[in-house]
Design brief:
The chain has a 4-stranded antiparallel β-sheet, with no helix packed on it. A two-stranded antiparallel ribbon has the order 1-2. It has 225 residues and is an alpha+beta fold. Strand 4 and strand 5 (174-177) form a beta hairpin. It has helices spanning 4-11, 22-44, 90-93, 120-127, 144-148, 219-224; strands at residues 53-56, 97-100, 159-163, 167-171, 174-177, 180-185, 188-193, 198-203.
Length: 225
């Protein structure tokens, strides 16, 4: 949904790179305007220097599904990433994350260090210099060190995802995803699909689009993970 006044300018534009939905584009512009209002208000209240602003998405956009063999492609595309929202390929789980933290994070810096949504709780506690609640288990770790120095690497064994269900069928047997578990260690990513026990192994450093399944070619890495 979006106001007609914001949709019309996009209807006059030619689609580019799989982006072909003018209403969706207008929604994105509305989000952009809303964020602008928030940032302007922080400035007006004199809170910019004492406020961390975090912007990210909980999943990839609704599209890119032809890259995983479905007829329906959705309203956007993540090329060169594979898949989209609801899949556990990079197009579904790799999302934008932008953080503004004045006096701590240097503007314009970037990092390739992966983090998870479960890292936000310990990160915010760390940033606010607040201790953990008693007996509170944590699934994530603080990435404040990365915000302080973009070259920092978080010392953790791996990242994990587990989805033991079926998500949205587009046709007979054509699910957006079937039950799957994923582990990522460094550049390596292993996926196990439980319906047929299929294993997929990718090196994201050399194959960001997950086009080359190395599960059979690299049995030692597959077994390790």
């Amino acid at each position: 949904q979006a106001p007609d006044s914001r949709i019309l300018p996009f209807e006059e534009k030619d689609p580019v790179g799989g982006h072909n939905n003018s209403t969706y584009a207008a929604m994105i512009k509305s989000v952009d305007r809303g964020i602008g209002h928030i940032l302007e208000t922080l400035d007006e209240l004199g809170l910019r220097r004492n406020t961390m602003v975090i912007f990210y998405s909980d999943n990839g956009g609704l599209g890119g599904f032809q890259s995983i063999g479905l007829d329906k492609n959705g309203i956007t595309d993540h090329a060169p990433l594979k898949g989209g929202k609801g899949t556990f390929y990079e197009g579904g789980i790799r999302v934008p994350l932008v953080i503004r933290w004045p006096k701590v994070t240097r503007p314009g810096t970037t990092t390739d260090e992966p983090v998870l949504g479960s890292d936000f709780f310990p990160t915010l506690l760390d940033a606010a210099n607040v201790g953990l609640p008693p007996n509170q288990p944590l699934n994530g770790i603080s990435f404040v060190p990365v915000l302080q120095d973009a070259s920092t690497t978080l010392e953790r064994e791996a990242l994990y995802w587990h989805f033991p269900g079926y998500l949205q069928a587009y046709g007979p047997g054509d699910w957006r995803t079937t039950p799957v578990s994923v582990v990522r260690a460094g550049p390596w990513k292993l996926m196990r699909f439980y319906e047929n026990n299929r294993l997929e192994l990718y090196n994201l450093e050399t194959d960001l689009g997950e086009t080359q399944n190395l599960a059979q070619k690299r049995p030692e890495k597959r077994k390790e993970m």
